Give the backbone structure.
Amino acid sequence: MSPAAAETTDALPDALNQARRLSAEFGETLANHAAMVLWAQRQLGGTEGDARRFLDAYIRVNNLAPMLPLDAPILRTDWTARLGDRRAEAAYRAFFRAELARLGSAGTLQRHYLPRLLPGIAASALHALMRLAYAQDSGTEAEVAEALGYWAATYLPLGEGIGAAPITDQPAAVLLRLAEEPTLRAMEFDDGLLWHAMRRTAAMPAFAPVHDWLAVCPETHRKMAQDSLLIYAATGEFCALHAVSGTHWLRLILPVLEPADQHRAIRFFWQAIAAAYPKMHFPLPLTPAEAERQRALPAPDWAVIAAAACASDEEHDVSLVYSARCEEAQWGDPLYRVVAARRMGLLPGWES
């Protein structure tokens, strides 16, 4: 852990420790963002008071509760037997804590277990990936174990293709081809749960080959980030927000994987975004001319946007602003600042 990360993590022991004891989901299996938002908020300049205000409100509004008690323990010899079983959250989190102690470091723990978990990267609508990414970002080894436990308990496989050859190296082209499938265009979703929509889309026969469509190359992750941004900038759509943040989360975990598993992670991640695309109602990305017009909008600087996010009790405000700031630093696209300002009401919104 870097000195800065250690200082940031230690600054919020009470709020962070309280957040970590809570179940990773609440209500109708909605993702509990508390542990991740506290980290992101602090990185944006938030104070201990901001953290306590956010956490108290988040617990109260969402009726957050501790995990269910540990039932049968997870054994190393058949640790995959309960993947996707939400009743096993406490057992999986305890298992990975014990494995962290046995293996000695979070890096070793991830190298040992994360490749097997990649087909279920859609776990809890990508929020287990978020938790692992922010554990990595903060350098908090104990959080890595908690995140892997969350991922295992909510594991969501979307299929591993049909073994066909890739057809494009453009991530957006995968989504546009998906939009041509009439059975997928006809889908309707009767609840607000993103992971339910992803699972339902993945069960459609027309979705089976999607995993195979994307050819992964050294530029694929950058292209995914760009295409996600252009789709979100076009609409401000809630599911598309997760594509923008998700490319940030993916970037944070890729370094712990071997190159072949990095390619697998990229492909499974984009498959998950494709599974959410019907619920987004198939939005088109901005054209180059439209993107340039938005980049020219008078967005305030990051300090103003970050302050607005830190004052917000809406978890996706903090998540989007932090990811957008990090991604602009990585890729150099000022459109990230524009969408963050719009999200925070500092520029006219998408409806204008």
About this structure: Strands lie at 25-26, 30-31. The chain has 19 helices and two strands. Residues 97 and 142 are 7 Å apart (CA to CA).
